Structures are given as C-alpha cells and as structure tokens.
Amino acid sequence: MFDKKKIKKTTLSLFFFTVVMFGFGYALVPLYDVFCKLTGINGKTQRVVENVNQKQYSSDRWVKVRFDANINGDLPWTLKPKERNMQVQPGNFYEATYIVHNKYFEDVVGQAIPSVSPSVASLYFMKSECFCFVNQLLKAGETKEMLVRFEVDKDLPDGVDDITLSYTFFRTLPGDS
Amino acid sequence: MKPILKKIIAALTLLPLSAAADWNLNLRQGATSISNEIYDLHMLSLWIVTVIGIVVFGIMFWSIFHHRKSKGVKPATFSHSTTVEVIWTIIPLAIIISLAIPATTLLIKMHDTSEAQITLKATGYQWKWKYDYLDEDLTIFSALDAESSEVSQLDSGLNPMETENYLLNVDNPIVLPINTKIRILTTANDVIHAWWVPDLGWKRDAIPGFINDNWAIIEKAGVYRGQCTEICGKGHGYMPIVVNAVPMDEYKMWVADMKAEQEAKKNTSDMVLTMQELMTKGETVYKAQCLMCHQANGQGLKGAFPALAGSPLATEPAKRLGHILQIIYGKGIMPAYGEQLSDVEIAAVTTYERNAWGNDTGDIVQAKEVAEARSNKL
Amino acid sequence: MSTVTQANDHDHDHKPTGLKRWFFSTNHKDIGTLYLIFALTMFFVGGSMAMIIRAELFQPGLQFVDPQFYNSMVTVHALIMIFGAVMPAGVGLANWMIPLMIGAPDMALPRMNNMSFWILPFAFALLISTLFMEGGGPAGGWTMYPPLVLQTGAAFPFLILAIHFLGISSIMGAINIIVTVFNMRAPGMTLMKMPLFVWTWVITSFLLVASLPVLAGGVTMLLTDKYFGTSFFNAAGGGDPVLFQHIFWFFGHPEVYILALPAFGIVSQIIPAFARKPLFGYASMVYATASIAILSFFVWAHHMFTVGLPVKGELFFMYATMLIAVPTGVKVFNWMATMWKGAMTFETPMLFSIAFVILFTIGGFSGLMLGITPVDFQYHDTYFVVAHFHYVLLTGAVFSLMAAVYYWLPKWTGHMYDEKLGKIHFWLSTITANVLFFPQHFLGLAGMPRRIPDYNIQFADFNMISSIGGFAYGLTQLLFVYIVIKCALGGKKAKALSWEGAKGLEWSVPSPAPHHTFETPPRLTKAMLEH
Predict the structure, then answer these.
(1) Neighbours of C (≥3 Cβ pairs closer than 8 A)?
(2) Does a structural domain hold residue C483?
(3) Residue A176, domain member (yes or no)
(4) Strand residue runs (E) in C206-313
(5) Which among C285, C272, C219 is positioned nearest to C250, based on CA atoms?
(6) How high is the ipTM of this complex?
(7) Subunits with 3+ C-beta pairs closer than 8 A to A
(8) Parallel, antiparallel, or unpaired: how do β-strands A162-171 and A63-71 relate?
(9) What one-character DSSP code corresponds to residue C82?
(10) pTM of the full predicted structure?
(11) How many CB atoms lie within 10 A of CB C271?
C-alpha cells in the first residue's frame, strides 16, 4: 500500500545523516583548533615561528609581558619565572627563563601548556623556542632552567599594553604520550 | 522516622526567625562602575519585559474575559493578517536592537583589561582558592572558615542562623585597594571553578591550564563576599570568596604584614611540641583542610574518599614517611599541602591522624621530621 | 531494512493479549501508551529526587544528605527529567497521534518503534543503578563537564553507556517519525495541511538526528579520555576542557528546543479547539518553528559566556540569542490572535494551554535577559538560571504535556476524565509551580549559585517558600495519576468528536480509537483538513 522503497530510502538516508553527524562531533575537534587559531580563543599560543635574525625593529611602543607559572594537580614541582615581567618592544625577539624544580624524591615527568591573556593578544604572541607540549623529565631534586624566545607582533592592537604569558605544568601519567 | 519529625519541627520553629532576615529581591548594584552599569542594563531589560508582559497578558486576559462562549459570542473566522504579522515581527526586533546597543558598548568596556595597576591571580582548588599577588610575590590560600565548616557538617546540631556570614566567610580574606584598576586572572588546579563576587559585577570561569582575565575598580571600601559558581565536586558550595577593599595605604601595610607573617611561618622546623599541643593543632588543621573528604570521624566516603581511621597509611609504622609525603605532595585527586601548610602544621596533622579515631599509634611527628622529608633527607 | 514492514501485514482481527501484547507490540497506539506510562513513571522518579533536593534546601545547614549525594541528585534529576520524562512523553504522544492525524495505519517502521521504546527501561535501570555503586552516582551535573566528570567513580562507564542508549532510542524514534510523515500521509494531506503538532514533531525529529549524534561523539571522547589515554579534553595532553562545552552545547541548545517545540505543537492544537476558531497564522507558525530550530544551532555558546570567549564571539552569540525572541514572539502573538474573538470555553486542556502561554513567556523573558552577555556575567550559574529553565521546561513543556493528556485522554480511553478534578489539578499545579519557581528568580539575583547543597541565611526565606511550593507541587501530581486511572477505568462515554471545537482526523475515528485505524487511507474532504 505504501511505497516500501521510498520508506527504505528515507530511513537509510536518515541513518546515514546520523552517522555523518556523529562524525561531525569528532570533526569539531580540528575545527575548534582552527577556530582557536583564528580567534585566539582560550589564549593557546600555538604560533611558533622560525628563529628570525635579531632584526631590530624600533618603535616607541612598549608592552609589558608578565610571566606566570602554575603547577597542576599533584605534580610535586615548583615553577618560577626568573623575572616576573619584562618591558618589550613589539617586533623584536626576547628571551625569558623559567626555573623548574622537582621537590620529589623520585624522577617525575611533566608537560607544560602555555596560555596567553588577554585572548586577543595570543594571536600576536609568537615563540621561536618553548619548553611546552613536550615531556620534561626531572630527576629527584633536580632544578632546570627553561627558555622561551618570543616576539610580540608589531601589529598588536592598540588597546593591549599588558600581556600575561602563563605556563602550567601537568604531571604526565605513565601511558600518556 | 523520629529524627526526621524532629527536624521538621525544628525547621518550623526557625520560620519566624528567618522572616527577620533581609528580603533581597533584586540584583545587587555592587561596588564598581561596571557593576552599576550592569545593574542599569538589568533594570532596563526587566522593565522592558515587564511592560511587554503587562500589555500582552493584558490583551490576552481581556480576550479571555470577553470572548467566551458563555457570553454567547459567535466565533470569528479570520485566520491570518499579513499586516499584523509584519508589525509583530518588527516591533520585537526594534526592542531587541534597543537592548543590544547598550549591551555591546558595555561588553567592549568590560573586555578592556589594559592599564591595570595590580594583578591578582585566583586559582581554584578543590575546594579553596589560592591568590597570587603577581607584583608582590605574595601567595595566600583562602578556604572556608572553621566555624562555617563545623556548622555545615551533616547533623552538626549547630544552627547556621547563629553563625555569622555562614558559608560566606573564609580563614584568610584577601585585601584589595580601592579606586585602583585591578586585573584579576583566573585559572584552576584540578577541575573547572568559577570566581564570582557579585559586587564586582562579573564571574569568570577558572579552567586548569588556561588563564582568563578580567578587571575591577572597586569604588567603595568594604567587605565583599562571593562564591564558586561552577560545580566542582563535593565541596562546591563550600569555597567562598571574601574581598576586603581598603584604601591604598592600608593595602600596602597589609601586604607588608602578610609577607612578614609568612616569613615567620616558614621557620617552624625547629619547633618541638608536646603530644597534646600537636593533637590540638592537628585537629584544627584537619578540620580546615581534610574534613571535607575524610570526614570528621576519619571514615571517608566509600568509593570516593578513603578512610583514615584504621587505614594502613595512618597506622603502620613502615608507612609513617609515606603518610607525611602524601600530605606534602598529594596523590591523585588529593591535593598537595606542602605549599600551603608549614612544617609544624603538617607534623601536627600527621600526628593527629595517626592517633585520632582509635588509630592510637602513639606516634609523635615533629616539624623537623617534616622538614627532612621535604628535603629528601630521610 | 529488515525493520521495514507494512502495517497491514498484521492480523487485524485480534490484538495480542497479555505480556506479549506489550513486549512485542508493533502497534503505534500500544507503543505510545508504553512511552506515556514510562514517562509518567520517570516523572515521579525524577520528581522524588527533586523532593530530596528541596528537602535539603528547605533550611540552611545540612540535614538529610551528604553534599556528594546531593550533587548526584541534581545530576540524575536532570538526566531523568529530560531524557526519561519529557522526551519520552513527547515521543509517546507522537506515536499515538501522528498516524491518527495524518491518516496513516501505523508508524512506518513498527519494529524499530518497539525497539526504541524497550531500550529506555534498560538505559534508565543502568543510570539509576549507578547511584548504588562505589563512589556514588554521577555528580558533576547533567552537563558532564570534564575534568570533573572524569572524577566519577565506578558509575562513569555506565553513565556514558546509558547516554548512548538514550541517544540511540531517541534517534530511532525521530527517524521513525520523519519517515512516517514523509511517506505515509493520506492522499490530500499535503505538508502545509498537516496539523501543527505533526509539523513541530517533524522539525523536532530533525533536531534530534542532527544533535544527538554530536553528544554521542562528545561522551565517547570523555570515555576514551578516561580509559584509553586520548586527550580530547585533557589540557595535560594538549586538549582543551572547554572544547567539551562547545560540543555539549552544540547538542544542548537544540535539545532545549527538542523539549519545547512539541509543546508549541500541542498548544497550537488545543487553543483553536477551545476558541472554536482556526489557528491564526498557520504558515507563519510553521516558518517560526523552523527558524527557531535553525537558529538553535547558532546560539550554543550563550551557555558559556563566562568561559572567556573573545569579545567578537560573545557579541555574535548575544545577537543570535536575542534574535530567537522574534520567532518565539510571533508564536505567542499567534496564539493570542487565535483566542481573540473566539468563543472560548475553559476545560482543563485549555487551562493548561493558557497557563503554558503565559508561563512559558515568562521563561522567555528571563531567557532574553540571560542572553544579554554583560548582565549574564551576573546571572550565569545562579538560581536565576534555575528559575528560567524550570519556567520553560516545567510550566512550559510539562504543562503542555498535561494539556495534551487531558485533550486526548477521551480518544485514548473512550471516557471523559473527571473535569472537576482536572480543574483542581490545574489550579493546584499552577499555583504551586509558581510558588516553587518564582522565588528562585530572587534567590539568583541576590547571589545564590546553583547546585549548592547549603547556603547563607540571607537565602533562607525564599528557599523555604520554594521548598513548600515544591512539596505541594509534587503531591498535586498524585492527583493527576488518580484522574488518569479513573478515566481509564470508566466515566462518561466519549464521543468520536470529544471536544466541540476540535479539528483534525484523529476525531474522525471512534473513541476509544480502535486497535487498527486507517487501514485504508481515508478520503479527505476540505472540512477535514481545516486546522
């Protein structure tokens, strides 16, 4: 009485659509990363540039970069920037050092995640060297210095005069890559 | 069922008492120019929807009273009118635009964190706040005060009505200067929290690994209270925020005092206390830091938080060092206390845990042992 | 597809009896009944959790439950009410009424229909069993934000599995509805002649198949993050916990309309019936519903204004959110215009529908206020939000479901319900629901965060009032059960056209509707297609 074929076709195409939407959920992961890069959402600084020559770009503009450090959860480390903040000129490369120390009596592996605030600034914050996103092994009681080389882009919007670069070290659990 | 009956009777007797409390009906105006602007925008939107409501419901009720079958009316048959439909699409659109304009201006203003004079970082922990004064090298842990903590226990038998600032009071309030632009960064140590003091006009999520910024210029001196507003586990309702806003010179004095106090606290490793002293101090520390999870009776919560009473960690001699180290460094979801507790406090709470609730090991842990554990000398 | 069978394959002389009838039923009316009974049961299970919540909040201090258990009550109450009560009730109505309204003999995929129902009891048994597991039930809120939700104990994998089951059940139900409506309409029942209830369900079904798989993806990522070392939401591995919130609310906001759109459909059937006047602006109702559905995919981040979005993002989501007020306004105005110059009577379904229009609009007003980003920084995650979504979902969605039950009960049972008791139920429900939720606006504005088990004494008065309203509302619903049972067992015989002004094909079959209807497509006259 009813068109069985048509019913089958509508059903199958809807099931197909469901599967596509399930895939879309996963596609949101890379899409979100692209979106973050475009908008600077959450201040993930992912712009890593080649170490350009010490080009001297001079201007009258000075911006304060503040170095912040966090330890997450139960990672028995301390993390401190050598200088709390630095006056920089957009367009030039600078270096900053963090001191990281393992208080524990065993070796521990951790990984640092950067974050920049305000979020608009993360679009203009570039690093040529960074200790983030890689596992760092600290032996029991060991202290290490870790270097960041960065540049604030000269196109940084006018409203921004103070940027916070924040690192958070997380414990890498065995099995995590 | 008897205890429940008792509770209901107790509750009913509270009714007249509570009626005396404030009847706060509206948003707070707050203590910053932003919070005042937010209040104005809130009132504007509230009035707009109230007027729309009165007009729309008024017409509806007029219709309900007049166009009823019992009055013998014959139903009309019209079923559409393009003119009317266009009108009632355009009018709401216009109203919305009139609200969106001031909202946009205010939002842009709120996002401008430049030219701040002081930067404060608030880090959410399960379940307390850590504050770093980034320009001062000063760190403060701020947790629910002992009195609220005690009263808020299940079946504590204590009356919250008689507790001052119940659940809105902390052990270490933070101090901020007035008439100064303060940038407030938020982040978290474990799960997502949210930092909210209503009088400052905003709340902002504190997310582990990420840093958010916001700002405030507090215009009136006073004590401002707030709470965590993102569910963060068992103690979500028990991590208030207290901001004490004072003139700049007072703020500077406070910073100096706090630094001196913390310096003094650092050198506790030589202190030697008696068992009695350790137990008293240990109980205070336990109540403030450990009770939320491990419970007043040391029984923990099955499946979520392990018991301390009778546990190998807190009773076996071989685990004594492990016990101290776990308090210093934390383990899994148990946070590390090494940073916020002094040697003598850790010694006291370890002693307490090893002797309370029938653990009775007789162990006495002194500050020196904690200091040695910290420096890996054991 | 093996599940595709034709309704007329069945033996139509006898309906199966006993357990077999219910367990293996492929009859849309039986399955509809099962859905409705299940939804009512879950309404009471979720409701008793709400009673625990209100009992704990009755006065300051902790009297009855541990904070961890309180959190799991908050979490499971939401999951049960959304996925176990409101959605199945809507699907139950759709099952019962859509074939009757479009002149089809049954749903297009009757065996799948049976399966999508019977998944539900198992899924909820699983979900509720987590409350008795080590470490307690899920307690991180129904929004399941990581990292907190990853701290859930033994309950975690069961929570995810239950969500998957609920999702599969709803998706199958939705597919069935779309396929039925697209393929099984009686000749002459063109799309723009369909009753609005059918329209809203078609649109809702599209929302379901588009949004639920995204949630399924999100919770699967949670599962692999916890057990298989992936780092979708784990900042330590380069992931981002906020990403989950985006995924969740990409599902979550359409979900809100999944709960609300069928309510719009119900009210659009009932108001014209009791105003004895055609629905005003039928076409604009259809377009408004569709545009609300489409807009719902572009506003998700208004649930996340405080996570720290860039200003441009916040502005975009604010404008999109405020824009939803326009089509929603159109709907409210259309209902008003339908009443205007009608000849109204006020039987229980009409009373619930009018209350729906007013109270849902109040929920809409607070929704508009919440959409204004800078002010939302104050309202977010306070009781103002709790009040808002309960106005929309309880006095909105649930009231419309009550209206629907009273409206169609004569068709289902063949008896008129007790009108006097129905009216008492209406007035008690309306008064108590407002005593329950209106004070929560004040609590939120005064600064009380949501999802807290205990509070400062400044919030004591309104919490006590709210709790009293809550207990009274809960008790009142027992009356509803009594009325429904009484009506099922007997009462005044209902005519085929049970309501004087009702329009639509469902009123052309006898009351109670026979087990099999429209075995041969009805011949539709112009009068039968009036709305």
Answers:
(1) A, B
(2) yes
(3) no
(4) none
(5) C219
(6) 0.90
(7) B, C
(8) parallel
(9) I
(10) 0.91
(11) 27
